[in-house]
Amino acid sequence: MCKNLHITALLILLASGVKAQQDSVIKTAPSSRTGIYDSVGIRKRSFFPLPVLGYSQEKGLEIGAAMLYSFYTDNSNPDRSTRNSTLNLIPAITTENQFKIDLKANIWTRSNTWHFKSNLRYHNYPLYFFGIGDTTHYDTRSLVNNTRYKVQVEGERRITGHFYAGASVLYQRDTYSSGDDKGIYTTMPLVDKEGGYVTFLGLTGIFDNRDNENFTRYGWWFKLNLAYAPAFLSKHPLFKMEAQGTHFLSISRKSTLGFNGIFNSLQGNDLPFYLLPEMGNDLIMRGYYTGRYRNQNYLAGQAEYRYLVDPKMRIHIWFVDIKPKFALAAFAGAGSVFANRDFNFSGFKPSGGVGIRYFYDENARLTIRIDYAVGEKRSGEPRQKGLYLSLAEAF
Predict the structure, then answer these.
(1) Which site in 188, 202, 362, 373 is 20 to 30 Å from 7, CA atoms measured?
(2) How far is CA 25 from CA 221, 295, 321, 337, 360, in A?
């Protein structure tokens, strides 16, 4: 792994940026439950900017921000079951003239009848390429330049009960070039080594009976997306399948146990290396550099225990007036990448760590998440690990 230094002003996390105003109040019978356990109550819009400062050898000094706006779409006629919608903007620049910007939307209509998600992304960033498979080596890694344009839109409608069905469109264009003329990228034969484009058209099915999308306490969520990239819209005809699932158990008033699994598969005669499923990110298989291991199929699972901490204190300093609530977390998982007909249990790699969450919008259960995770220790290499600062839960 390249060394990364992440510096965040925790006082800013606790004190600044949260601006909320009352949007609607749903009147129901009194309840003894308050805070993140509320099923009804005051609904607010909130805005939270999160400054991030980082450094790494290939990027230099990185200055960025994560900004999340939370709101409800049915304020004129509120329904207690309607989930909050969010807009998330993440821009960042570096001293090496690199730039990235992500704009994500997650929209729920009244009574959660419709659900829309979108992701617009542009980045011009270097990354490390380690090869393909589950036995790649750190010493043979290559630094490659990558420019990516990505547009992704999904929409689902409730069919009956907790079942949703919908469609998705994903367009992605990549260009790649060698960043240092060293390592495996310069010698390994790869499909679309200099980049390409793809358009996936998909169908989606979802089952969702979670009590809340954010900091879930109980319930199930399953999603299956099948997508095809036709030759007239893509450089190569491809088929992919993405399956995800979560289950949450409320052990006690303060304790929650969650389980999460994922399976991704890419099929076709010519598989671009940059579209192969990758292990590692801030959501699952934390502790691994994204793309350290990649192959035609990816299977991973994890469990996470969360414990609510309510110090029942009030902090009132100048313009700061908060009653902080936190949650502690511990997680563990395992995952593997493999080619078709080459699945082996020995290929699974461990992941585990601890974290803390701060509720910056208690009514919507929106959190800032800090996790530290470790992975495998390969012979002759440092142990793989990562520090993550993110808005919202991993799952």
Answers:
(1) 362
(2) 28, 50, 22, 48, 19
